[in-house]
Amino acid sequence: MALLFAILLIIANIPIYAFAADNPDADDNTGVVLQYSLTFTGSGTQDDPFYGELNYISGKIEETTIETVNPLATINGGSNTYTVSLNYGWNDITFYVTSADGTKTSYYHVRWSRTKQPRTEHLKAGDLYTKPATDATAADGKIINLDAAETYEYTLNNANDWKTVSGVTEITGLAAGTYQIRYGESDSHQADSGSNYLHVYIGRTDQPFTTANETNFEIEMPKTVYAGERIDFRVKLDGEFFHPIMKISAKSKLFFSGSTTYVSVTFNSYVTDYETDDNGTRYAIGYFMLNGYNKNGANGTLTITGITLYDANYYKIEPADTLVAATTITPEHEDDTIVFENSTLYKEGSNVTISLEKREESGVESINSFDVCLDDGTVVASSKDGSAVALTVSGNLHIANIDATYLPADFTALEEQLARLDGVDLTLYTDDTRVAVERYYSYADQMYKLLAKDQALLDEYVLNLKNAIDNLIPKDGIFTGIEDNQALIPSDGSLYTEESWARLMQAASAAQTAVDENWNRLRQDEIDALASDLKTAIDALEYKPADYTAVDEAIANAEKLNPKDYKDFSAVKAAISAVDRTKNITQQAEVDAMAKAINDAVAALEKADNAASKSPNTGAGFMIPSVGAMIVSAAAIFTLGKRRKKAEN
Fold first, then answer.
1. Which domains does the chain have, with CATH numbers?
2. How far apart (Å, rounded) are the C-alpha atoms in residues 529 and 549?
3. Any idea where the Cadherin-like beta-sandwich-like domain is (predicted)?
């Protein structure tokens, strides 16, 4: 799974944040997300930045993108992402993150080691050869034929003391012995996992070998060679067709001074190549490596005793891509094949049958058709339905143009998890849990490319996606609207009607429940509705009516008087007429002033000159228009006042 995740950071179809200065998500979070989990040390200051190391990360990753946990934060004063190219070896990545609210800056130092890819090419036998040391104590042997463009590593066998060389065609200063050599670590690749063994012999110019050829072939090689040396040869191959060498037979004898005995010399022979000169003559190119002996006065002979050729032209048949199909090549006669350079060759003119077997483990459902082609692309046989084809070998062949149907992986579980994200606004969830979901979600398109053989990988991905979704944590709700309106609730509820105050208390209680229960961002619409209901209830508060008892008593006392008994009763009438029955409890002082005005007017009355001769007033003569009606209709007037209050509000 890690390899799949190391491929890239894919741009996902995920929500985009809009920044606003008063955005409730503009917090002081300066956390970051990398492609790989990393534990940081340090305090995050410029002098002590957050520090972490990522080692042994895939060499295929050429760049990485760092993202802030809160998408409103910035990296290096730019956006919330920072893309860095990765070199091989250690990369020091430094950056700083400024929080969305601008109150905090954190500094980071990430050391990222990008490992190199393994080598796919290896040294072959015969690619390199040696030159001997002059004696057992000298360190003047060589390994020759290196490619100056390559890097090599070598060590004396079993010493495990690898040395590196590059830009050279030979390694010098070698004592006699057996050496391991391999391709070394380059700018883009790791050192080869395997190595070849080469022998640096002891060269003895006092141990000459006289060469001889007892075969019917024309062989070019030195007439005299010496122990420990490489002996190059070239064999002329007569005939119109190319018949490769099957075997070279040779014998050697080494005679020592003063003795008629001899020892056999063990040597390795290689046919390294074939070439054709300007006249069209073919040659086999190769060499022998002769042992050296730390004995004086020896001499010997090296004789090529026989060369066996294959009796026809032979050709390779390259199999199909092994991830698609297993190739079976069945010759009509087993004698029509040879093994040359670790490959099976097929005799020219022989008949073979080629069949392909689908690789079910690679998710191949069927092989529908394929072609067999020569090196130049000429089609020599075709299978129109994927069945086996028979053909006559006429050159090097390869399987091409394979039409295969691939079994997809089972995406049912993946689709179930993706359906859980349909219509989901991930910005409503905490940054840490949102980022985890977005990371896995971003790989969904890549997952749909997986085949049945990758089902385990897909299942692991789906489980990780499911866990990320399950672990989503909604952000806290935003209660600013409720809190602002709570501040508007009057402190003295006794001033308001029981009905309107009860409605307000009900709205306030519902809003407070949301606060106490800490409703999350998924219920933000409900929170906002409660804030609106609270404001509506505040606006709908109705004051209680003012107390007109004193006014009514003052009017009643005035009505007991006979206006004719007084010089001027108009002030009393005016005070009573000025009574306004629409006042509420907050205007009680005005109502009390009305009562006082009536009482003051009564107290200021002066008796008429003839008042003493008249009978006491029963009130029947006190005719104040509509005073009685005003008293009777007080309730109606108060109701009207309430309606006006509502309208004004």
1. 2-114 (no CATH), 129-309 (no CATH), 315-406 (2.60.40), 412-470 (1.20.1270), 480-539 (1.20.1270), 549-648 (no CATH)
2. 43
3. 75-114
